[in-house]
Amino acid sequence: MFLRKLKIECLDEAGQPRPCPLHWIDNFAMRNFTNDAIFDDTLPVGDGLLEAGSRVPLTELRDAMESWLRRKGYLKAGDTLRITELTPDARAICR
Fold this sequence. Notes:
Strand content: 25-35%
Shape: globular
Number of domains: 1
Order of helices and strands: EEHHEEHEH
Number of strands: 5
Number of helices: 4
Largest sheet: 5 strands, antiparallel
């Protein structure tokens, strides 16, 4: 089900990335907050890491997650979110 490994990074105004904290990702991933079934196929696994099913669209995930994190006050006005699908080689490096 969770075939895709995603790296979730917060970028500050200068473009410097940092891993999105696990509790931010976990907070978003709870369906009772997002009310969108398409994100049910997600599993937070660590700081900056999320596993997802094949039907989860990355652009919609980024937009929804960024909006949620901004509403919660986690992201500052100039911050953005970057989601990258990891290749098998990159997955080994992240562990």
